């Protein structure tokens, strides 16, 4: 077995001073390292697979067979084949909310605990959903452009807002932690809120078991649900046409929740009124047709990216990794429920 010291990081201490730091495998560089990489290195001996010149499989076989914890970025796909190369893993700690790239069925078979960071990002993602909605309705980016490019005194056909948010019918797709916070924020605008979820919740909001029916009764859909085989393309052309020509779609969940090709067609054809998108089907690629539309607002999958959220995420991840030997004490433990690894295209060059 080769020496992995050049690709592992941490504070080296002699055996006489203190026990070695716990090893943690990191396959792809996580977003949180932009803020807290040094802090992680003080607590853990990090095996940074992406820095190695070795092919990934060879690195895992040679250097990670004894690793008990994996820090997982949203880019990392943990398949059954990957887990086969990591026979000692007991914990997969995800830096983000979604776990759609992890084979939960295989984790359950192996007794591996999978955790996410939902609580760290809930408030900020909900804020971003409202921000995207207001930006689409009021055409804020287009107005900002007019000022920056000194079109204000020249362009008398300046962008005008779509319609008032106040008292509109808003449908929340997925009334989980984030969806609930989105709904609470919409209450301040006097909106009438309804929702669809896997099952009806204890809530004062009107429940529609069918998303088509929800769309028929709403001006706006805000997509907050998890990505599963069942929710893939949950927003299809039929749903968008049911929403109508003035309808707005906001997506702060995952890109494949929306049939992106049909979304582009509906926007270009005027079948819906606008969209606010933080996520896309084949990130980081974005359909070029969207760049020309003033009724569309685009952000680069950063809905929850605030310094405070990353600090909360850091604390949650550290707590989970340090506690992996006692699953009962884990925070935000993601249950290893029956499911399958979703196979979507991500990360290709545009």
Summarize the structure.
With 350 residues, this protein is of the alpha/beta class.
General description of the model:
- Keywords: NAD, NADP, Oxidoreductase.
- Residues 130-303 form the D-isomer specific 2-hydroxyacid dehydrogenase NAD-binding domain.
- GO terms for molecular function: glyoxylate reductase (NADPH) activity; hydroxypyruvate reductase [NAD(P)H] activity; NAD binding.
- Pfam families: 2-Hacid_dh_C.
- The chain is of the alpha/beta class.
- It has 11 helices and 14 strands.
- Strands 1-3-2-4-5-6-14 form a 7-stranded mixed sheet, with helices on both faces. A 7-stranded parallel sheet has the order 9-8-7-10-11-12-13.
- Residues 1-6, 11-15 and 332-348 have low confidence and may be disordered.
List the helices and strands and how they pair.
Elements: E1 8-9, E2 23-26, H1 33-43, E3 45-48, H2 56-63, E4 69-72, H3 80-84, E5 91-94, H4 104-110, E6 113-115, H5 118-138, H6 140-148, E7 169-173, H7 177-187, E8 192-196, E9 206-207, H8 211-216, E10 220-223, H9 237-243, E11 248-251, H10 260-269, E12 274-277, E13 296-298, H11 307-322, E14 333-334
Parallel strand pairs: 2-3, 2-4, 4-5, 5-6, 7-8, 7-10, 8-9, 10-11, 11-12, 12-13
Antiparallel strand pairs: 1-3, 6-14
